[in-house]
Write a structure and sequence with these properties.
Layout: H1 3-28, H2 35-42, H3 46-52, H4 56-60, H5 64-76, H6 84-97, H7 108-115, H8 118-143, H9 147-172, H10 177-199
Amino acid sequence: MTAGLRAMKKQQTRENISHQATRLFLERGYDKVTIADVAAAAQVAKMTVTNYFPRKEDLALDLSDAFVGGLARTVAERPSGRSALAALKEAFLAAVARKDPVIGFAPVEFARMITGSAALVARLREFHDEREAALAAQLAAETGPGLPPRLVAAQLGAAHRLLFDETLARVLDGQDHDEIARTLTEAGTLAFDLLEPSFGSYAVRP
């Protein structure tokens, strides 16, 4: 088997495990499903499940890599002349336009599952903290260590956290995703514009 085929097989296995886990969580509730249940549904060994998803919470929050690394990656890939704030504002509004699940767009049943589990709420809080730390590290790599990159990351991370919570709350309220997108476009624009006087000239890429 070539390297490309092996990678494809691994991705298919991962997606199957994630799909079966989500199906079971929605049918039974997150806390009532075990790793063994997921392994049986996916027709793989328990060890295979934990190799792909070391923690049960990560089975439900399968977009963790995109979530945790997204802000830092957006800053790292921004073009010349663009500040970190401007790049993140643009990326957020683009995510709203495509109703990206990474920023909170989800079926209401899935949102209820997440918010109904203390373990998942706690894990999501960890993801927010890890995302902020990753952003701070990226800013520090560009501007130098110290308080400023951590302070800026804390403010930008808080804005994204509040916007995520707003999205999730509106999903739980049963609002249409188009309506949520309109509201989030306005809220996101306001949030980043309020930060502009303080951070608009910080970390501008040469």
